[in-house]
């Protein structure tokens, strides 16, 4: 099957919509969305049978599929709705003491930063933010030094945990997580990885990373239905006092049962793993990854050339299906947000935008249905809007 525009027939997008932001909420092919509806229908035919007797078996079958996909044991994986909830549950699974230190970075996803700050306030923890700059994010040696410096500075302040991204949101980049986990071991603290952007984006092997806690969204890049996230807690760290933030009927019954049963919800997205994996197999895993990576690389080149600017990462090994490109003329987020809204409503594409180290950037994705023509078209149209906006502001 040819990649590019031909594949759009398999997805539910509007005819003229161009998706340059697959990282946002992901998207499943139409037939996988239909499989989810099939399950909903099955549940509704006899809900008592499903919720009382089939639910845990079906969850188990799908947890095994996810565990195999990400290189973990089934009993280390539980499902929740989204990565935001997953991270909150991980924070709740750790036994904090007043005065403990948690380290995180300035480019952690906003919800995650907020949760850490809130936790620190409630539990009287020391929350330390590592400030990554353009210079640092361009060099893994400097990234590791920034992490190690923070760990050294806090090793005598009850250093308890370090939270880091696997593939960050904005700016988007791939972190050297094996090395960060090794540093956590060296300084005797827990490693918590936000992998919301990873399954289906890159190969994952959680046991190989030897990370302590890992959370992720299946719905972003894997082709399962949304909302669907998982939590990984290393077996050796599971204890009787791990509870989800929402305490349900299974209180005290252990990690897996407690997380499976947290009140009534719609489990049907969790049942779409096999179809998603079959679809990936049909397209070819290696082909999906190399095509998408190359699309993001080309997107970076095309946008930067059209706009007369630069991509954030000069080394292409530091990003995968998402590339960050500097925006010309625009200097504030307020202005860029107005342009992005105009582009969405008038031109049918969205530019995710953010401020980093004093500059405004957009983040563009490459995936199986994109083609270079998407980037040629959108970069030219966006430039027209950017120029018009900049002229209006100065006149
Ligand atoms: C790195 C990262 N972490 C966490 C999240 C939050 O994901 P969700 O909206 O599914 O909770 C996102 C969402 O884009 C993300 O990119």
Structural notes for this entry:
It is a single chain. The protein has 395 residues and is of the alpha/beta class. The chain has 2 domains: 32-276, Aspartate Aminotransferase, domain 2, CATH 3.40.640.10; 284-394, Aspartate Aminotransferase, domain 1 (Alpha-Beta Complex), CATH 3.90.1150.170. Helices cover 45% and strands 13% of the residues. The chain has 13 helices and 10 strands. It has helices spanning 30-45, 47-70, 83-93, 110-123, 134-137, 140-154, 177-186, 206-209, 255-260, 273-283, 285-307, 333-347, 372-394; strands at 77-80, 101-105, 126-130, 159-165, 190-194, 213-217, 229-233, 322-326, 352-356, 359-365. Strands 1-7-6-5-4-2-3 form a 7-stranded mixed sheet, with helices on both faces. Strands 8-10-9 form a 3-stranded antiparallel sheet, covered by helices on one side. Helix 6 (140-154) runs parallel beside helix 7, helix 11 packs parallel to helix 13 and helix 12 (333-347) crosses helix 13. The chain is globular and about 65 Å long. The termini are far apart.
């Amino acid at each position: 099957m040819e990649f590019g525009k031909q594949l759009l027939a398999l997805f539910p997008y509007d005819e003229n919509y161009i998706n340059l932001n697959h990282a946002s909420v992901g998207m499943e092919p139409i037939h996988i969305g239909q499989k989810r509806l099939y399950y909903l229908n099955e549940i509704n035919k006899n809900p008592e049978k499903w919720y009382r007797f089939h639910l845990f078996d079906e969850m188990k079958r799908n947890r095994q599929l996810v565990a195999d996909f990400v290189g973990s044991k089934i009993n280390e994986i539980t499902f929740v709705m989204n990565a935001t909830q997953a991270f909150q549950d991980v924070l709740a699974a750790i036994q904090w003491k007043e005065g403990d230190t948690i380290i995180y970075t300035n480019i952690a996803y906003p919800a995650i930063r907020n949760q850490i700050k809130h936790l620190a306030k409630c539990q009287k923890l020391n929350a330390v933010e590592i400030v990554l700059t353009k210079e640092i994010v361009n060099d893994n040696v400097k990234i590791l030094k920034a992490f190690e410096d923070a760990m050294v500075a806090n090793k005598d302040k009850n250093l308890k945990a370090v939270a880091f991204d696997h593939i960050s949101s904005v700016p988007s980049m791939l972190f050297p997580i094996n090395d960060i986990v090794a540093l956590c071991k060296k300084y005797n603290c827990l490693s918590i990885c936000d992998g919301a952007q990873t399954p289906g984006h890159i190969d994952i092997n959680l046991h190989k990373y030897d990370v302590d806690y890992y959370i992720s969204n299946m719905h972003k890049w894997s082709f399962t239905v949304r909302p669907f996230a998982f939590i990984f807690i290393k077996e050796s760290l599971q204890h009787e006092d791990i509870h989800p933030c929402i305490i349900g009927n299974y209180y005290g019954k252990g990690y897996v049962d407690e997380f499976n049963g947290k009140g009534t919800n719609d489990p049907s997205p969790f049942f779409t793993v096999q179809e998603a994996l079959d679809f990936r197999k049909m397209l070819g895993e290696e082909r999906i990854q190399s095509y998408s990576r190359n699309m993001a690389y080309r997107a970076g080149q095309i946008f930067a050339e059209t706009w007369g600017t630069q991509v954030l990462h000069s080394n292409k090994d530091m990003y995968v299906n998402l590339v960050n490109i500097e925006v010309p003329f625009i200097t504030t987020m307020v202005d860029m947000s107005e342009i992005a809204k105009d582009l969405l409503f008038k031109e049918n594409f969205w530019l995710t935008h953010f401020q980093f180290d004093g500059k405004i950037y957009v983040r563009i994705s490459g995936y199986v249905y994109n083609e270079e023509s998407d980037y040629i078209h959108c970069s030219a149209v966006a430039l027209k809007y950017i120029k018009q906006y900049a002229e209006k502001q100065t006149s």
